[in-house]
Amino acid sequence: MEVTQWEAAATCIGELSDGTWLLTGYWAKQLDCDVIGALEDLGATVTTKAPQRQGLRIIAGISDQDLATVAEQFDLDLVPHASQSIAMALPILSSVGAGLNRRDMPFASRYEYFDTRSATWIELETAVLTGLYRVSHSFSSRYYYRNAQDVADETASIVTMQLGKHLAALEAKRPLIAYDPVESSLSVPLGAELPGMYGRAAVMGDGDLPEIRRSDRSVNYLNVPPAAAAAIIGKLTS
């Protein structure tokens, strides 16, 4: 897939699962300085969670009323319970799959097919199964998702690997996601990271990137509130 356009996330302040707040989205330098100054004048503590990435400013030690006053002063969006709020607004995955553009399925001498039972790629000579296919070109690969109608029509949709894997899992009724309520973590196989805004909803629980665990080849989104996890899983499985 080629990037033809991109858009920065809106400038806003989102609440994390521990009650602190994250400055997220695009922040102009002067606005950033002015808002942080106003927050600190009201007694807030602003820390940088990931100094190596020069971002992830966390706000603590300020009342909701004072924070709302600053947000109003600078015309900022304030999003309580950000992880759950985003998750509840997401579309169900089946509607995303239905809305994809279709094109002819390309011919290839061999196809790689994503097996949802083992979460691995297997080689096939034909592309007559529903699910996700990887077709290699000279120096790159493209991913094609096919549902039952696509197979009948000899069509497919070009997708990202992550989106394609979860669409294939939905088609096969084998979800590639699990939630541990004790650890408050959402887990997916390595290479099947949550696509797009589904991933954004999960990371807004902790405010940081997910953790990769090589021991079981999983990607884990930490401190995801139960309500947000339930919404994300519900959207990905329907």
Please describe what this structure looks like.
It is built from 8 helices and 15 strands. The longest helix is centred in the first third of the chain and has 13 residues. Strands 6-11-10-9-7-8 form a 6-stranded antiparallel β-sheet. A 5-stranded mixed β-sheet has the order 3-4-2-1-5. It has a 4-stranded antiparallel β-sheet with strand order 12-13-15-14, with helices on one face. The chain has 238 residues and is α+β, with helices and mostly antiparallel strands. The model has no long low-confidence stretch (mean pLDDT 93). Helix 3 runs parallel beside helix 8. A hairpin with a 4-residue loop joins strand 14 and strand 15. It folds into 3 domains: 69 residues, Alpha-Beta Plaits, CATH 3.30.70; 78 residues, no CATH class; 62 residues, no CATH class. Helices cover 31% and strands 28% of the residues.
The amount of beta strand, in percent, is 25-35%
How many beta-strand runs? 15
Question: What is the number of helical segments per DSSP (H or I, 4+ residues)?
Answer: 8
Low-pLDDT ranges: none
Averaged pLDDT: 93
Element-level helix/strand string: EEHEEHEHHEEEEEHEHEEHEEH
Strand order across the biggest sheet? 6-11-10-9-7-8
Return the structural class: alpha+beta
Rounded to the nearest angstrom, the radius of gyration is 21 Å
Q: Describe the sheet with the most strands.
A: 6 strands, antiparallel
Q: Oligomerization state of this entry?
A: single chain
What share of the residues lie within helices?
A: 25-40%
From the spread of the alpha carbons, the general shape counts as elongated
Distance between the termini: 25 Å
Instruction: Give the number of domains.
Output: 3
